Amino acid sequence: MNPTATPVHVAIIMDGNGRWARQRMMPRQAGHRAGVRAARAVVEACARRGISHLSLFAFSSENWRRPQREVGALMRLFLEALEREVDELHGNGVRLRFIGDRSSLSAELQARMAAAEERTRDNARLVLVVALAYGGRWDIAQAARALADDVAAGELAPDQVDEAHLAQRLALAGMPDPDLLIRTGGEHRISNFLLWNLAYSECWFTDCLWPDFGEAELDAALARFAAVERRFGLTSEQLVAEEGEDAC
Ligand code: FPP
Fold first, then answer.
1. I need a surface site. Which of 14, 130, 135, 142 has the fewest CB within 10 A?
2. Which residue puts its alpha carbon closest to atom 11 of ligand 1?
3. Which CATH superfamily includes the segment(s) 9-247?
4. Is the pTM of this model over 0.90?
C-alpha cells in the first residue's frame, strides 16, 4: 500500500451525458455540452495534481452508429471545443494528442486536430490524449498491419514480432500505459477503449454521470488507486522484496 501514489496516466470513459440531460428534461445535446465542461474541469484538476497523462474517450468507432443527427451535433461540438479551448490549453502547458481513425473524420476537423497537435507539441505539463473515432480493436489491427508492412518490406523478420514491436505501432506508442481507468455512468465495461494498454490498469467504476464528475469524484478514484497494491502478476512477497531492494 502506498498512500501517496499518484498515477502517471489516467484514462477515462466518459459515460452518462444522455441520462444527465434526460433527468433534466433537456435534449441529449445539452448533456454533451455539459460533458465538455466536465472534461475541461478534469483536465485542469489532473494538471494541478501532477498527473502527466490523461486520456479521454470522446467518440468510439461504435458511436458512428448513433442517430445521424447526434453524430453531426457531436462533431460540431468537438470542432467548437477545439477552437475555443486550444489557446487556454496551450497557455497551461497542455500537449494535445488525438488517437483514432482520423480518415473517418471531416477534413476540417482533421486539419484543426493536426494544427492543435502541432501548436502544443512542445508542452510538457500534461499530455491530453483525446480518443476520437477510436476503437481498441481498430488500434491493434492497424498496428498488426503496420508490422505486416515492415515484414513485407524486409525490415522485420516474422519471428522478431513481439509485444514490444506491436506496442510501438499502437496509437499510444511511447506513452506510459494508463495506471488508472475511470468509467462514469454506472456500466462496468471497457467498451473497446485502450484494450492493449489497459492490461494492468486499476479500474474505478462510478455511478456518477459524466457531467457531474468533478474534483471530489476524481479524488475518490485517486485515493482508491493510492490504497491498492499493484502486483503486475507478482506475489505480495516478491513486491515487498523488490521494495526492499529499491530502498537500498
Ligand atoms: C457519453 O455519454 C458521451 C459521449 C461518449 C460523447 C462525447 C463526449 C463528450 C461530449 C464529453 C467531452 C469530451 C471532449 C474531449 C470534448 P452518453 O451519450 O453515452 O450517455 P448515456 O449513456 O447516458 O446515453
1. 142
2. 35
3. Decaprenyl diphosphate synthase-like (3.40.1180.10)
4. yes
